[in-house]
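Follow-up to my post from last week.
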Amino acid sequence: MGKVIVCFCEDVTLEEVRRAVKEGYRDLEHLKRLLGIGTGPCQGKQCLVTVAKILAEEAGFDPSEIRLPTFRPPARPVPLGVLAHAELEEE
Amino acid sequence: MQSSRRSDYIIVGGGVVGLSIAYHLARLGASVIVVERRYVGSGSSTRNAANARAHFFNREASLLAWESLKRMYRLGRVLGYNTLFVRRGYLWLFYREEHLEGMRSYMKTWRELGIPEGRILDVDELARRYPFLNLKGIVGGYLADTNGRYHHDAVVRAYWKNCIKLGVQVLEYVEAEKITVKSGRAVGVETPVGLLEADKAIILAAGPWTRILAKTAGVDLPIEPIRKEAMVTEPLKITIRPLVINTKVNAYAQQTLRGEVLLSSATPLDVPTWSYQHTYQFPLRAAKAMVETIPALAAVNWLRQWAGHYATTPDHNPVLGYVDEVEGLAVASGFSGHGFMLAPAVGEYMALLLEKGYLHPVMAPFSPGRFREGRLIKEDLVIG
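User reply:
Got it. Predicted complex:
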């Protein structure tokens, strides 16, 4: 089998995820920080659930035990200029 | 779990500070257990902006930071794991003549301390070197090119791997609940997996949570969890080399090692809270400040914002060393936003204090007792 890409933004392969789990990185946060999964333009919307499932299989976890990293704004990329010209209301 | 529940030292907090202390203690031959309530690095160690500087506006912090920066330069080689340090420099932009003059005169202090003092750049030189800057209202800049950035996750992993190699037990998802004190001595840490006993000392390196744990031993440390926010864009070719600081509104922008633009700004919502919740006001404020400073940023896509803590003390300087009230209890916290960059030196000095009884003169001014004794560290210069 050729390369299987699991994170399209950062070009991370299935093999890289498996190898990292074998090395002892058994937390999505650690995999994210080691491999860069979920840090590209989609911010994990395409890859994190897939990687969670791979982690569960490789490490023998129940998928429901795996915590996903926090999802944060924005929901999709926004140019800084749009923010810079927004009205800023302070309470 | 077959691992031992007893060791020379128990360190609470698996962030870079706790791991650096653990690494240096283990190198001196001590046995160490590190307990971390979530995953390794999960507090400020994964949320920080990954910059290191030597230049602070008081002598005590500058000396400690310089010692740490020198260690940061060679950390990758020492730990055998690339920590990706680059000397990108810090560029402060000034909007008021008196701030520029204040900086010019403070450079003498750094020189006296043996710290490379950097240099003042006039507006022409700023325009030449940094064509992306909007110089409107700027009277000059100060460039400290000894300073730079590291990869925070790589640094944490480097310490973590070395700790494991040296036999340190690093327990993730184990929360320290209470310090057990017997006849005036801290002897153990209560956790959901049982009591962890320390033969020599317990070290609190738990960021702002240090205060809560210290309280269980009857010790009050003035450390507040001030929320700070940051945001990041899509990656671009590296153009903005130094960390660019807008001193008018206390905001900054820089590029990470892979080119994302990382922005931050002080906001009125930097308040004490345990929450890591982001605010909608922060990205508006940071973008406004830094698009004004670097207009081309207007076209760059924002991808993420997040929040972390500055574990802040009354004098904005760390709390390092044994507490006076209880025997065998030490602290390394209250870094007020500078813990990561100080971790290499602090880990070494704390280990010397704990294992050798040697209080390094560079660390001595940061004693926990200073707040009670009224020996706060004074800022010599305030900019912004």
